[in-house]
Amino acid sequence: MNYAYIEALQQQGKHVDAASMLNEQLKNYSRDARFHALQAKSYASMGKRLLQHQSQAEVYVLQGSLPAAIEQLQLAQKSGDAIFISSPA
Q1: pTM as predicted
Q2: For residue 82, how many C-alpha atoms fall within 13 Å in the half-sphere facing its CB?
Q3: Where are the alpha helices (DSSP H) in the chain?
Q4: What is the pLDDT of residues 1-27, one digit of tens each?
Q5: Looking only at Cα atoms, what is the longest distance across the chain?
Q6: What is the mean pLDDT of the chain?
Q7: CA angle, residues 25, 78, 33, in degrees to nearest 5
Q8: Hey, what long-range contacts does 50-57 have (CB within 8 A, 24 or more apart)?
Q9: C-alpha distances in angstroms, 54 versus 1, 8, 79?
């Protein structure tokens, strides 16, 4: 796994590069809570609150903490940096 490399990118402030690498890693390791946590950290540093909360929700789901995951998704919905479109009734 590439945890150390991703963490090094984050420490250097290269969060866009880290997020890109994390997206690739998560295609193969979607159930890796550590990758999701690192992704949440990069998104937070980039000011992408919606994506940060979604990634943190994934961490909580994988850890079996559904109430915490729901809370993160509610925060994502209120983040203000995304548009949610309701489907027609």
Answers
A1: 0.87
A2: 17
A3: 3-11, 15-28, 33-45, 49-62, 66-77
A4: 589 999 999 999 999 999 999 999 999
A5: 47
A6: 92
A7: 25
A8: 50/76, 50/79, 50/81, 50/82, 52/76, 53/79
A9: 22, 23, 11
Token pair in block for residue 54: 């979604």
Question: Which pair of tokens denotes residue 89?
Answer: 């009734």
- For residue 53, which amino acid is it? H
Helix axes 33-45, 3-11, angle to 10 degrees: 10
- Cα 65-68-74 angle, rounded to 5 deg: 140
CA–CA gap between residue 36 and residue 55 (Å, rounded): 5
